[in-house]
Design brief:
By secondary structure, the chain is an alpha/beta fold. Helix content is 40%, strand content 17%. The chain is built from eleven helices and ten strands. Helix 10 runs parallel beside helix 11. The protein is globular and about 65 Å long.
Length: 317
Amino acid sequence: MKVTEKFSEGKTLFAFELLPPLKGDDIDTVFDTVGRLLPYGPAYINITYHREEVKLLEREDGLLERRVVRKRPGTVGIAAAIQARYGIDVVPHLICGGFSKFDVEDALIDLQFLGIDNVLALRGDNVRGERLFRPAENGHPHAADLVRQIVAMNRGEYLDSELEHAASTSFCVGVAGYPEKHAEAPNLATDIAHLKAKVDAGAEYVVTQMFFDNARFFDYVEACRAAGITVPIVAGIKPFTTKTQLSLLPQTFGVNLPDDLVRAVEACRDNAAVREVGIEWAVQQGRELMAAGVPALHFYTMGKADNVERIAKALFG
């Protein structure tokens, strides 16, 4: 079932995001997270995709060898396993980084064969250590281009133009939004213009980056509507967990931390106390967002379910 069809139910949905396990780990940690959150009725589950990393390894002759590795493969397989085991719709992520257009097409064909109806189209991160985003050879430089390819396949248009009577796919496409602008955007207006381009390309809903101040989310939605973006906008929530996030989250994601949250975290004796603050803050955020009628709360679990389990119990139990 398509995510946008679920939004029509008229209530705020519970959704969360999972990381594929590191290469060499098994899927049990994923199933454990899903099993713990299952009682709270997740409407769908997102599965992230992680681009390649470049390692420099010293050879026996003393020279350095450049090796490309993926630390978290398995997005398509995990998405299929969750949907088959639990009967819950999944939203695997597709990224531009490290993928050619042909890789994207092959992934979409696999997803279609597996009965997966939803994807989240993202540009993805830069290669670690590189300041600018570099698309793969024959790849997409922007998420809007990726959306166009997915939508073209929904029309039965493949990269091989000689195909006759090609089967149309039927993917529901989501994209990312940034209530406090993407780190590379010069200002919020420019960032919203980029979002509008993704929606105009065929994106059907938006999932926001994490935010800790609901006022910024509400202002963002209002600005999006003023720009002509009418698709549903899902609120992305990440529970605060450690003191180091006071500097790490603003630096990495460009998010603003409200004064009350900062003071509460600074007053904590240890990270166990910080987790309690983070849980309570997320519960209060969620209640206000649900009262405002947001289509869904999308929780960034980072592979750990205990704090999200308590938040979901308070909001959806």
